[in-house]
Amino acid sequence: MSDDASFSLDDLHSGFGTRAVHAGQQPDPATGAVMTPIYQTSTYAQAAPGDHKGHEYSRVSNPTRTALEGNLAGLEGAKHGIAFSSGVAGIDAIMKSLRPGDHVVATDDLYGGTYRLLEQVFEPLDIHTTFVDMSDPDRVEAAFTENTKLLWVETPTNPLMRVVDIETLCEMAHGHDVEVAVDNTFASPYLQQPIALGADMVLHSATKYLGGHSDLILGAVCTDSDEWAEKLRFQVKSTGASPGPMDAFLTLRGTKTLHLRMERQCENARHLATMLDDHSKVGRVRYPGLPSHPGHELAKNQMSDFGGMISFELANDDMEKALTILDEVEVFTLAESLGGVESLIEHPASMTHASIPADEREKIGLSDSLIRLSVGVETIDNLEADLRRALDQV
Ligand SMILES: *Cc1c(COP(=O)(O)O)cnc(C)c1O
């Protein structure tokens, strides 16, 4: 095989599952340990000032974190991965690389913490954001000003599950010298690869699908740009947005099974979305895998499957009934967050998206009875029976 001139060792590592298990990692050179150790140290011995083995101080870099960064870059098909203490620390670092007077255009339906950061932290620092519904690229272009520097895309959106056309928006934005960051938390790199579609940066809350077990907080940015990588590493070093080695290790442990978990989560979510769509007590079901979803065709092109997140409204938009369902479920756990092996249920209007004012929520169509599910890997019959039983109570 190695006689074949076209053969490259990279071919052996080309599959997503192989990269998930191996990218960024090798057996520990000191001991042969197959798993990257948790390097629980703040500092590193130097033979003489400046003569070290690649690490000086763990705010700046740590070997467990470096392995994780290589792994995440491998999964996103990017040159660089930079890990942060949380997803919002990654967003914060990107925004801090802007200057007063700069303008951002962001999805109007997005993670509540991103909205809070842009509105309450960066707006007073004279970095302004316009929020637009990105299902129509023309509306995005109309929001650009001469100061627009960054387009912030989330897709599928949270919690309304709209699908945004990454490739079209990247082309349009680059025509205006605007860079594009995509929050890929909901899809994960297994289902969607924004860099290949033209994005300059990909943001992850690794707290969600990458970690996958609801036992850590960590964020990451992946990019092909040397300049952005340098700016973001400077931010980590200067502002201390560094994740600890234990959380880096747990994320690395999680990514090894990302493809397996995601496959089951997509399968379970597809089943539940279809069941809810046929249920008389349920109003609109928002899941890109349903052929009736307005973004279904786009999602089919842009993603390799439709993900594990579902939102649905109740018939008549009755909030009291929505709260009863949250109270009645037994297998689903009432909690914020998403992407873990366990199924979660939540009420965006009073939980994850409470930081978005009521009139804004109404404007974007985030209704009071909206329920969001993060579908886990439990046995599907039990998940279905749990939801059916809860719906019978209202
Ligand atoms: C959770 C989340 C974040 C923030 O990540 P943290 O790790 O909680 O800081 C950002 N974007 C999306 C889509 C999220 O779900």
Question: Mind explaining what this structure looks like?
Answer:
This protein is an alpha/beta fold and 394 residues long. The protein has 2 domains: 16-255, Aspartate Aminotransferase, domain 2; 259-391, Aspartate Aminotransferase, domain 1, CATH 3.90.1150.10. It has 14 helices and 12 strands. Strand 2, helix 4 (112-122) and strand 3 form a beta-alpha-beta unit. Helix 1 (16-22) packs antiparallel against helix 2 (63-76), helix 3 packs parallel to helix 4 (112-122) and helix 3 crosses helix 8 (226-239). The protein is globular, with a radius of gyration of 21 Å.
Give a short summary of the structure.
With 394 residues, the chain is of the alpha/beta class.
Tell me the layout of helices and strands.
Layout (H helix, E strand, L loop, with lengths): L15 H7 L40 H14 L3 E5 L2 H10 L6 E5 L4 H11 L5 E5 L4 H7 L4 E7 L11 H10 L3 E5 L4 H4 L9 E5 L13 E5 L2 H14 L5 H11 L2 H20 L4 E5 L9 H7 L6 E6 L4 H10 L4 E2 L9 E3 L11 H7 L6 E4 L5 H13 L2
Parallel strand pairs: 2-3, 2-4, 4-5, 5-6, 10-11
Antiparallel strand pairs: 1-7, 6-7, 8-9, 9-12, 11-12
Helix pairs in contact: 1-2, 2-9, 3-4, 3-8, 12-14
Bound molecules: pyridoxal-5'-phosphate.
Pyridoxal-5'-phosphate binds next to helix 3 and helix 4.
